[in-house]
Amino acid sequence: MDERLIATTDQGFLVYMADWNEPVALRLAELNRLHLTDAHWEIIWFIRDYYQRYQHLPNARVFTKAIARQLGDDKGNSRYLHGLFPDGPLKYACKIAGLPKPPTCL
Fold this sequence. Notes:
Oligomer: single chain
CATH superfamily: DsrC protein, C-terminal domain
Shape: globular
Number of strands: 0
CATH class: Mainly Alpha
Number of helices: 5
CATH architecture: Orthogonal Bundle
Structural class: mainly alpha
């Protein structure tokens, strides 16, 4: 991985979205004690696509419903998403995906 310094906020979100790439995502995941699987990547790519398409981040309920519509009810539910991102699916999916902190997250 490129060892250049990547600017992050005090909560670990990227300051510059353009700094994001897959190795950066892996490092952000490591810093947040997550081992990324294909299931994680599916949600990461989903939220990146959502943000690019709509230019905003959803709240947690809309996030879950949007996943259900696109990826199916087995993935678009709180239990599944918390299994992947135990400390908060929307917040941590956005953080690992190099997106801003969702306004509805503490």
